[in-house]
Design goal:
nine-stranded mixed sheet; mainly beta; 550 residues; Immunoglobulin-like; 1 helix; 51% strand
Length: 550
């Protein structure tokens, strides 16, 4: 099992149970939204910073004193063979009375040592090469008495497939997912381990035992990574029946979201991640599925009552999804009741959002200037570097003298607080990514008043407008835009200007308040592009080629 998933499984189970994590678990990614960094963005990714799950105390050696009970553990894989150490690394012991557990390293499926007498849940992970795949099994004894010298055999041949099914949709199969198991004893959750849903096996639940599952899964047509016309984003938190573990769902219990994924004009490939924000987990895993050519429309089903952390991505038509050639947008989605929901992942207009300054940066390696510069009205981008972009971030004092400069648009690291006073922060960006014809230039300016505070939040303005799948609007027709000012007093009124010649000339567009929103209407030109300049108290934003004309 990859270390990223192993860490996430431990965090998933930890949301409801005391579970030792493997001693070799990978450290969480220190980035916030940059948790998707990597050479390729396909596959599962760890979001945020999962809680530190203590591995427990290491079981004492076989000759240790102190009155412990001698324990011997032997593990067999699903072929009945002793697994090599890399396929079964450790065995965990969780006291049924609660409290800190123990673990022992396995050497070719064997471990021995001493433990305090008592009742334990005992479990291990075992991977087994089988035909063209590799299965992962969590083998457990939900109630193991350790009194006199105790020999335990954990035999993966006793495990059964973790079954996931959607009623009435036999072609829906697991693309990715994970499950954590725990036993409830006296109001406490005692961990029994976790496993991936795909090619996952688990010991059957004993009769009379209160075993619970905390799980999430991504299902597509025949488990395809690309091109499925539907996607099931499913979550379970429930007691499970004795016998093999089965997780099920029905369409009528789910939110049915008809989602239009927009492109930015040129040929492109779309895909994204989705994962539950489990309460108390502090992080989690998102799972990838690809749509293929963009724009695309897909029916996406969601378990209701959970907040889903979702991303959508655009990459060249070759579907590389490499870090250097992919744009990423993130948003939360929550559905509190089943039924149909129309939705759009807008690709334009883009602009800054969530802008702030942290003088000197802060723990975790985050930069001092953070501006999510390619955000939309409903989704937040990452931070620079972006594919195909160059630019600068410059801080000037009230006399126009340069105080600091960065060679990235909207990102600067290590800037120390200058003397109190008034300053100007300017971000300039040029963009020429292969999958876009939009936002070829941005010029954003903020007025910054420096005092003795470490953090300064900067206002931003987002713009929403109806566009087709290629982020274009009809020529000569009326175009309605909704402007939202964030990080400024609610009474702040934005101003809007539009350009039809890439910023050579500008014309004012009236902005009015309607039903609690700032709205404006302009007449689209006969061809080309529309550029937008929006201003409000303390901020002046310009995006050249905000959307196209068809």
């Amino acid at each position: 099992m990859p270390k990223r998933i192993m860490l996430s499984v431990a965090a998933l189970v930890a949301a409801s149970a005391v579970v030792p994590a493997p001693a070799s678990a990978a450290a969480p990614d220190p980035y916030r939204r940059e948790g998707l960094r990597g050479s390729q963005l396909r596959g599962p990714v760890v979001r945020g910073t999962p809680p530190v799950v203590k591995p427990g105390r290491k079981m004492a050696g076989p000759r240790a004193g102190g009155g412990g009970v001698r324990v011997t553990v032997d593990v067999l894989d699903r072929n009945g063979a002793k697994p090599p150490t890399q396929n079964a690394g450790y065995v965990a012991f969780s006291p049924l009375t609660g409290g800190e557990g123990f673990y022992a390293d396995l050497a070719d499926g064997h471990a021995e040592g001493t433990l305090p007498a008592g009742d334990y849940a005992v479990w291990t992970y075992v991977t087994t090469p089988e035909n063209t795949t590799q299965t992962t099994a969590v083998v457990y004894r939900a109630n193991q008495r350790i009194g006199d010298d105790t020999a335990i055999t954990l035999d993966a041949r006793e495990t059964r497939p973790l079954r996931v099914a959607v009623a009435g949709r036999p072609g829906a199969r697991v693309l990715d997912g994970q499950a954590g198991l725990s036993r409830r004893v006296g109001g406490k959750e005692i961990g029994l381990g976790g496993l991936p849903m795909k090619d996952g096996y688990v010991s059957p639940v004993p009769a009379g035992m209160d075993v619970r599952v905390l799980a999430e899964g991504l299902l597509t047509e025949n488990g395809a990574e690309f091109g499925s016309p539907y996607q099931y984003n499913l979550a379970w938190r429930q007691k499970i029946a004795p016998g093999p573990v089965t997780l099920s769902a029905r369409d009528e219990d789910l939110a049915v979201v008809r989602t239009a994924h927009q492109s930015e004009g040129p040929p492109a490939c779309a895909g994204g991640h989705s994962g539950v924000k489990w309460p108390g987990a502090g992080g989690g895993t998102s799972f990838f599925s690809g749509l293929g050519p963009a724009p695309a429309v897909r029916t996406e089903y969601y378990t209701t009552g959970y907040t889903w952390d979702s991303t959508t991505m655009l990459t060249p038509s070759s579907c590389t999804f490499g870090f250097d050639d992919t744009e990423i947008w993130t948003r939360d989605r929550r559905f509190d009741k089943p039924g149909p929901v129309p939705d759009t992942w807008p690709a334009a207009p883009i602009g800054p959002r969530g802008a702030l300054i942290l003088w000197g940066g802060h723990e975790g390696g985050e930069p001092g200037v953070i501006i999510y510069g390619h955000s939309t009205a409903t989704a937040t981008s990452g931070i620079a570097p972006f594919p195909g972009t160059t630019g600068t971030t410059v801080l000037r004092d009230s006399h126009g003298k340069v105080v600091y400069t960065s060679d990235q648009p909207g990102v600067a690291r290590g800037w120390k607080a200058p003397p109190p006073g008034d300053y100007t922060l300017t971000v300039d960006e040029q963009r020429a990514a292969p999958f876009t014809r939009l936002a070829t230039r941005q010029h954003n300016v903020w007025k910054v008043h420096v005092t003795d505070t470490e953090r300064i939040d900067l206002p931003t303005i987002t713009t929403a407008t109806p566009l087709d799948g290629d982020s274009a609007a009809p020529a000569g027709e009326q175009q309605r835009l909704t402007l939202t000012v964030e990080g400024a007093p609610k009474a702040t009124s934005p101003a809007l200007r539009a350009s039809f010649d890439d910023g050579a000339t500008w014309q004012a567009v009236k902005v009015a308040r309607e039903e609690g929103k700032w709205v404006a209407t302009l007449t689209n030109p006969a061809n080309g592009f529309v550029s937008l300049r929006t201003t409000a108290a303390g901020v002046d934003q310009t995006v050249i080629r905000a959307y196209a004309i068809r």
